[in-house]
Amino acid sequence: MLAFLLNAIFRPYSLAFLQGVGWLLISAIILSMPATVRHKYSLNSVWPAFTIVGINNLMMVFSSSPFQTAGNLPIHTCLLLIAGLLLAEFHRNTAFTASHLRTTFGVFIIITAAFLIALPSSFLHPASHLIFGLGTIGIGITLHRLAPGVPGLKRAPGCVLPSFFFLGLSTFLAYVDKLPLQTPLPTSSPAILAGILLGIVCSYVVALCLHIHFNRPATDALASSPPLVGRWIIAIILFLSVAGIIAAAHLETRAKTVLETEARNRAEVLTSAVADRLREDERLTELLTIHPAVLDALSGKGTAACHELLARFAAVIPSSTCMISDASGTVISSSNIGEPTSFVGHSYAFPPYIGSALSGTLDRYFALGVTSGVRGHYTSKPISAPDGTLRGVAVIKRNIEFLDDIFRRHAMAFLLSPDGIIFFGSHPEWHLKPIFPLPPRRLEELVESKQFGIISSNTLFLSAFSI
């Protein structure tokens, strides 16, 4: 149970959600202050910045595209940069009293914003984190300096500097060891996760600090109504956020279990249907091994009757080709005799479906035809003399399309080789493509075996996983 709770909370999505709620909570506490206090201390540009960052976090969590991927980063970067500029406006109003200094700093902000926008996105994203983080740290310094002027406060509280410092630090923690700022780290990076976790803790500490030392004394001194956001509200919001994350993780686990069970049942049904089709070929191959026309052809009594027999078999078996080879693997009769792709006269001792049968065992083999270039399933069975001597091999090749109607019933299904090559699937573009990257040496061996012909260099998934 404990492992489930920790896994649910310490996911990147869950941590980002808690962090987003923390930013919004700080905004709510600032908004609950009297308008006169917010105006006097220029907090009217702080709460919109924190609101934007909170919404930004929640947008990344609930976005349909993967967390912090290229599709999300432009919006994420833009919102974070806007929030940083709002914090710069706060510092412009609180750090300078002379109008000409405020104007100069305002021009500097505009020039800096124009410069940042001109930067490549690989620089702009981490730079926006850095600017917002420094702006957040500066809020702590400013509030520490202005605290004696807040109604009800005689000195700056001890929580204001460290809480804002670490809150600001958390926003660019992942980039401090990557200077010059070039590329964002992956979401799974310990630095990013540590930054998010630090941000969560500090956001709730900042919320408490603002409520206890800046919100409540100010409203008490002004004889106003009680603050809208109190410690119990903060605790309730935190509790509901964690409870929501745990509930979502529980529902996700249940949904995965249901999907896995359904997928496993569908796979079993598909496997059974394919196996039934293949067993038909086994029975028909068995009939060929004992038919007199086949035995006479292997005895040197002529192949005309065998040609006719194989043609009748191929006419009955959809999308099939039948052939008989002698004990050396050379085809002496086939149903496609007279066609440009006739197998007669070709030696097929090297393909496993004949090689295994020559060793005396039944074999089933999926491969690309060496002569025809058509994907198919080969069923081969040895033909033995009454004394047990191997006389030849009977082979039925089915064009793989005979499984099309079975796979078409499934939205995502494929027939895999042990190495993960998609031999057939519900989507034609998947055919002869590895499901995940193969070791170069193994890929060379498969190409040399000619089982799948030229194997696509593209893979269906970027990394290997358990099937």
Descriptive labels:
467 residues; alpha+beta; three-stranded antiparallel β-sheet; 8 strands
Give structural notes:
Helix content is 57%, strand content 10%. A five-stranded antiparallel sheet has the order 2-1-5-4-3, sandwiched between helices. It has a three-stranded antiparallel sheet with strand order 6-7-8, with no helix packed on it. It is built from 15 helices and eight strands. The protein is of the alpha+beta class. It starts with a helix and ends in an 18-residue tail after the last helix.
The total of beta strands comes to 8
**Beginning-to-end CA distance, first to last residue:** 27 Å
Q: Tell me, what's the shape?
A: rod-shaped
- Main sheet attributes: strand count, strand direction, barrel closure: 5 strands, antiparallel
Q: In percent, how helical is the residue content?
A: 55-70%
Spell the H/E element sequence. Answer: HHHHHHHHHHHHEEHEEEHEEEH
DSSP helical segment count: 15
Kindly provide the radius of gyration, computed on alpha-carbon positions and rounded to a whole number of angstroms. 36 Å
